Structures are given as C-alpha cells and as structure tokens.
Amino acid sequence: MNKNKATILVVDDTRYNLQILSDMLANQNYHVLEATSGSIAINLAQEYIPKLILLDIKMPDMNGYEVCTNLKSNPITQQIPIIFISAIEDVEEKIEAFAVGGVDFINKPFHLIEVLARVETHLRISSLQAQLLEQTKLLEMQNHSLQKELSNLTGFDWALYAELQKANDCGEFILFYQPIVNLKTDLITGFEALIRWHHPERGIVYPDLFVPLVETTDLIYPIGRWVLKSACEQLRIWQQHFPNYIDLTMSINVSTKQLTEFNIVEFISEILFDYKIKPHCLKLEITEGTVMGDREHTLQILYQLKELGIQFCIDDFGTGYSSLRRLTDFPIDILKIDRSFINNDEWVIVKAIGSLAFVLGKSIVVEGIETIAQLNMLKSLFSSSLRDCYGQGYLFAKPLNSELAFELLAGNQSFTLDIATGNEL
Ligand code: C2E
Ligand code: MG
Ligand code: MG
To answer: Which residues form the Response regulatory domain (predicted)?
Structure first.
C-alpha cells in the first residue's frame, strides 16, 4: 500500500478539531478531505470514495450514526472503514457505533499519535481484505476452469453437479404428475410422479438433463428420499380429498442405487405409516438394469419391500437386456411397455409383451399413447384383458403440476367421453 496516495475524509463540526486532524494527516502525506456536516460528508464520500473516514458523532442536522448508516447502505461507499471520534462516555452509545458499522472508536480529547496509529492499522486491514477478495475471485475462476478441464477429461460434469447440490439445498425440485388410466373403465387409477428442476434462471429443466447425473452420484439419496416423501404426501392429500379416489395409486421412479441405500426399507415403511398410505397404492418403478444387477442383494431388498405390500413395475420394458427368468424370480407386478414400441407401430412386440405379462399374472402399462388410433389399436389387441391393461400418454394428459392434477381428479370424468368428442385434455 502506498500511504502517500490514500485519501482520508475527516468529518467534524468543530473547526478546531477538523484543522488539527487534517494538518496531522496531511503532514503524513495523506490526501485529506474535510467535511463540517453529515450531508457534506456523504456527498464527498460518494464522489471521492476515500480509503478511510474519521467521523465525529455529535453534529447538528445529521449525527455520526446516521451518516454511517447511510454510507453502509450504499454499495458504492459501504466498504469504506469508518472510525468514530467522540467525547461520548456512555458505553451503550459506544457500542452503537460498532452496531451501525464502525470499525473503531477513539475518545476525545484524542492524542494525534494514537489517531495516526489506528488510521494506519485500519488502512492496512482494509488493504489486506481487498487483496483477499481479489485472491478469492482469482481462485474461484481457477477452480471453475479446473472443473471444466476435469469434466472434459473424465466426462463428469462438475459444474452441473455443484448446481444440483445447490438446487437440492435450496429446494428447487418439484414434482409433476401424469395420470395412468385403466383401459377397461377409461378412468384414472393413479399417477406417475415425475421430477422437474425449477431453475431460478432457466425455468423448468426436464429430468433427461439432470437425472442421469443424479443417479450416478450421492445426490440420488437425498433427492430420491425427497421424491418418495413428497409424492406420498401428495397421494394422501388426494385420497383424502376425493372419496372416489380412495385407492388412487402413485408410481415413483427409483434407481438401483436407491434400493441399496442403508435403511431404505425402514424409510419407506415409515412414509407409508406417516401418510397412512395403503401399501398396494405405492408402485415403485425400477428398470431392467436393476433386476440385472447384484442379484442377491437386490432380491433381498425387493422381497422385504414386497412384504410391506408395495407393488413393483419394470419401467421402459423391452429396451434393456433383462433375462425372462428374472420376470419370475423377481416380485414384479407390472410391465410398463416402452413408448418407443408405440411410436414405431411395433404392435407385434406390444402384443407379445402384453401376452407374456398376462400369462405370468402381471398387468401392463402402455407408455406414450398420443393418438386415438393408438388407443383403439391397444384396445383391440388386448380386448380380452383390458382390466389388466393401463395407459399413460399425452392423449390422456401431459405431466401436470399438482394444481392441474387436482382439477383433473375433481372433474372425475371418463376419458372415453372426452376422447370420443375430440375434447383432448
Ligand atoms: P419414465 O419413468 O419412463 O417417464 C415417462 C416419460 O415419458 C416422462 O418423461 C413423460 O413425460 C414422458 N411421456 C409420457 N407420456 C408421453 C407421450 O405420450 N409422449 C411422449 N413423447 N412422452 C411421454 P420425463 O418426465 O421427461 O421423465 C424422463 C425420465 O426421467 C423418466 O422416464 C424417468 O426415467 C426419469 N425420472 C423422472 N422423474 C424421476 C424421479 O423422480 N426419480 C428418478 N430416479 N428418475 C426420474
Ligand atoms: Mg417411470
Ligand atoms: Mg418409462
């Protein structure tokens, strides 16, 4: 720090004090600004942004505390260290000087040598603080570019990981709900909970952009628990509110990692108890990868959960590599036929998967139904088993926020009527 260049503002309504402080500082080669009132001091501080202010407390018009509060509330002047100089003896008033943002207090009558020592100390402290801030900024920038480099080398997106950690801490995740409809009755029997990230700047972010990273890191544990808890809480509200939907179900996506989490069985049974959910109303959606993983351990957990009465569904069925044996070994209740088969009109495969499911005593959910033609095709393919056949897709409804899902339930209508009249939701 070059002390010859530092500008110091001295504020005192007593001309004599102002003069001797100014002369002493000028003799030390400081550049001195003088103010005889609070309003002059504020104007000078904003214009010249001095490195330090010596501020009297008792002044007419505006006292030193008011001047200090004003300067601290202005982003331009809030960093300037302020040393109060006053004849005040009252301890509480002295404490007030620190409460409004002063860094030090010098009693009047003052000794010039003491004032100088304190001025120099605080100039040094604030210069070090400024350096620290600069270094921190530099480190943050270096950290950011190192993370980027690491991401390029390892293929792991550290920046997204850090953002997701923050999103989890700040509660930025929300759940949407997509109805699941029975194809025999055309009525809603349940919902699938689908996570969204309500990003403060980017708006709604879809799971394809963040769930893969969440599932491969430790973030899956807190986020997975949050999803389970929130979806069950929501289910309880709807079941209680709508007597027609007392057995409404909630399907929740769970990853393989989540199933191996310590205490997962206790956690889920506590949720069922807390929200008074009948276990068969909770359907956990796992993928073919889950049943193909560590067989013994996964089986053990699945059977423990099955004992609670929970239902299991294999999601996106037909896209993975599950061995058919696993369909009988594992306690699976539902096969959810991947939407790519519907999209590509692969009806022979759809029919084959459905027939296999029914023979094994399981039901099916067909994903991605978007048109009336697709729905009619499914109804004719499975005409004799429609009771065990469910559909999900934009034709019925897109994933909805909880308010819109509530309205849908309040309507309590059959989808046949809506679809037949072309009144798509
Ligand atoms: P998923 O479990 O297979 O969910 C179905 C996806 O298909 C949803 O996408 C849904 O919006 C979309 N979909 C439904 N009907 C139609 C349709 O008629 N046409 C088309 N084109 N798409 C349809 P979303 O919500 O983007 O979710 C994507 C995936 O993210 C989910 O696939 C699931 O694997 C994962 N995911 C979502 N929420 C969670 C969660 O809470 N936990 C975990 N672990 N994974 C989740
Ligand atoms: Mg799913
Ligand atoms: Mg799916």
So the answer is: 7-123
- Output the residue whose Cα is nearest ligand 1's atom 45: 253
163 close to ligand 1 (CB < 6 Angstrom): no
Sequence letter at residue 96: E
Task: Please indicate whether residue 316, judged by its CB atom, sits closer than 6 Å to ligand 1.
Answer: yes
Helical segments of 203-323, H only: 211-216, 220-241, 256-259, 264-274, 288-292, 295-308
Joined tokens for residue 79: 């960093």
Confidence of residue 275 (pLDDT cuts 50, 70, 90): very high
CA proximity to 81, closest of 95, 62, 102: 102
Starting from the CA of residue 193, give the closest ligand.
1
Atom of ligand 1 nearest to the CA of 227: 41
Specify the CATH number of the domain 3-129.
Answer: 3.40.50.2300
Task: Report domain extents, the chain.
Answer: 3-129, 158-410
For residues 416 and 187, is the Cβ–Cβ distance under 8 A? no
Residue with the two structure tokens 């609670």: 308
Per-residue model confidence as pLDDT tens digits over 210-269:
999 999 999 999 999 999 999 999 999 999 999 999 999 999 999 988 988 889 999 999
Per-state percent for the chain, helix, strand, coil, to nearest 5: 55, 20, 30
Say how many C-beta atoms besides its own lie within 10 A of residue 40's C-beta.
Answer: 17
Fold of 158-410: TIM Barrel (3.20.20)
pTM for the predicted model, two decimal places: 0.71
- Read off the amino acid at residue 269: S
* Cα(155)–Cα(151) distance, integer angstroms: 5
In this structure, the residue with its CA closest to atom 7 of ligand 1 is 368
For residue 359, the CA-to-ligand 1 centroid distance in Å is 27
C-beta 370 within 6 A of ligand 1: yes
- Tokens 């509200």, residue located: 237
